[in-house]
Design a protein that fits this description.
The chain is an all-beta fold and 196 residues long. Helix content is 0%, strand content 43%.
Amino acid sequence: LRRRAGPTSKIPIRRRPPRQDAVRGRAHAANGRLRTCNGPETVSLTDGPLEVTIDLRIDGLGKLTIDGGQRNRIFSVREPAIFEVIGMGMTGGNASDADPPHGGAIRGAVGTEITVRDCQIYGNVTLGNGGGVNSSDDLSIIGSVVTDNEADGHGGGVSVFGDALIQNSVISNNSSGNRGGGLALWKQTLVENSTI
C-alpha cells in the first residue's frame, strides 16, 4: 500500500515538545546514570521495561540498540508522558507476561503521545496487540522500519487506538493472530510516502 495524502489531509495530533531532554547525543541512561556510547552499542534489559512517566526524548544517533532479551517489553510509557525516540534499534522485546500484554517494544497508555523517528523496531513479540508498538493514544512513526514482529492479537507490527501518522517508513514482514498483520488502526490515520 502506497498512499500520498493531499494538502488537505490533516490529522490533529498534539504537538508539544518534550519538557525533558534527558538523554541526548551519544549518551543513554543506564541504572539512573548517564553513559556515553563511543560506537555502536547494544544494551540488554535484565530487570523489566524502561518506564517512562515524564516527557522524554531519547536520541541514540543510530548507534544504540536496546534488546529486551525476549524477557521484557522495552519501553512502557504512562500518562501523561510525551515520548520521542530517535535513531535507535529496539529488538527482543516480549510483552507476553506484561500487564497488559500489549506492545513488544513500546506500549503507550491512554493520555500519552509517542513519536518514533529514524528507528528500527524488529523481532519483538506479544500475546496481545502491537508486536512492535501498541499505542492507546496518538502515535507518529517517521522514517522508521518496523519488521519481523509478532502479535497474537491485532497489529503484528503496530496497533494504534488514537490518531496515527506513518510517514517515510516501512512496515513489513509482521504477523498477527487477528486483524492487521502490519497495522491495526482504529482512528484517523495519515500514511505518507510509506510501504506497508
